[in-house]
Amino acid sequence: MGALIDALAPYAEFSRVGFVNILAFRLRYFTGIVTYSLNVTIYYFIWTAVYHNGQSIAGYNMSQMITYTCVGWIIRSFYSNTIDQEMAYEVIDGKIAMDLIKPVSVPWMWISRAMGESAFRLGLLTLPAALVITLVFPMQAPASRQDFGLFLLSTLGSFFLMAAIGFLIGTCAIPLKSILALVRAKQWLIELLSGLLLPMSFFPKPVAVAMAWLPFEHIAYTPLQIYLGKLDRAGALRALGAEWIWVVALLVLAHLWWNRSLRRLSIQGG
Amino acid sequence: MTDSSNPGPLIHVHDLCKHFRSFRRREGLLGSIQNLFIREYRTVAAVDRVSFSIEQGESVGYIGPNGAGKSTTIKMLTGILVPSSGDIRINGYVPHRQRREYVKTIGVVFGQRTQLWWDIAVIESFKLLRRIYGVSQRDFDARMERFNEVLNIGDYLYTPVRKLSLGERMRCDLAAALLHNPPLLFLDEPTIGLDVVAKDRIRRFLHAVNRDFRTTILLTTHDLDDIEELCRRIMIIDHGRVLYDGPLDRLKEQLLRTKQVKFVLKDAAHAARVAGFDRDGLELERVDEMTFRIRFDRHRVATSDLIRQILSAVDVRDLLIEDEPIEEIIKRIYAGEASLELSAK
User: Fewer Cβ close by (within 10 Å): the C or N end of chain B?
Assistant: First the structure.
């Protein structure tokens, strides 16, 4: 047990640095608040327009849809990260060398750092935003207390899915050098395929079926469905199980891809 | 120097190579379009069959012109880059294969970068490093106190790294690299861009570390004063290959070609007589009205003979004999003029 704590101590420290680091950028924090409020507001007006004749669409009525959007953006403020962008910069300017001279697992270093940042945002962005949004917009409460618990577990899974994907993309910077276009493409694709913008039931049937075999819909669609009580207990547990299996699979893949890419590393400058 | 219990060299490098594949861009519009689809690659050997050993406690200077392969070698030795071929064994480890265990036993400073976290206070970085290397609080406090004594870093421990001057940052980086008291220290251009005072402080610190803890030091530099003050042994590399590996003194002994005598006359009237020294094998230069400099090949002219001749020809107030600066020797090696002399060693 003591050995485990010693082994984890550096990573806890990376999280702390991630936390402290984000404090260094006040502007980014405030623009974050504005961006999230704007997004929720825009989608609120879009959905009220779409639902103006009062019918439900693809199994969602207006109140559910607005809740879906609000909760979706609230949890996005927690689970998202900028691992891929930061790694891209580190590879371009060669800073990645300084990570490699430290006796730590580089993948876990990045993920821990993102964890610290997410913990920061949870306290100073996600929770305040949740409070404001519940007061301003007509949002439903979670379907049940148990559902809310499963929803939290699923949202934690979303963090790890996003961290593993971010690290996978970030590692591409080693063979590809410039990945900023890839990073941007990933961001839009995730927004769409995670179900943040539209529930998967809005997609054409074959697409929705195909998506069920991929990890992306677990990022937003799974926790949001659980929140709204759209899944029975067995269905919710099944979705949650599938999500965490993806978490493990992507983390393993991230490690393999990283170890493989290291062989191709060249350090620019100096 | 080495005792009988020594199990062999600390660093052992054999036939080390690193090839980079670089993409050759074609010129012009048509070329750019071609580049999109067909890429032409070229393999460049940044490090080419390099072999050497370093014993514990040595302090070795690794020099060479820009692009010679110094940094690439250091990056392979520190486990950052994977060699294309060849063997590296350091303290029983193969760096790139056992990276996480291995890097606990080394300290690394890259003069062009920092291993500290840019946006947070220096002390936060140190705390993080303490955790990473599992240094006890007591050792940490003791070492910080020592670093502070010699490097004077106490004043800006609470400043973010990005606000430090280059010299301050470098001192913090040195402290960071030595926080876990590693037996081996790699320095890649540790004095680059520093002023004279800062350079001197860093050299004195490194000298003390090497002397007091028998810390093995391998450093690359372009400043030969670093080498003269810190290293008894140097390795010269160019185009990825080692050109010289041995004591600095022997390099001087072998390659020192010219010496110079500088003298100041007592009486300006004697200046005309100095013209007699403008003869074969001597290169005469008038520095100012009273001062002359004669450069000569030390293999062809005995210094003592020349001095005797000068003293008998003119009245001299002051006289100075100088070796060719080490920079000149190195310049000749880089330019390829001295390679023959070396290979004949």
Answer: N
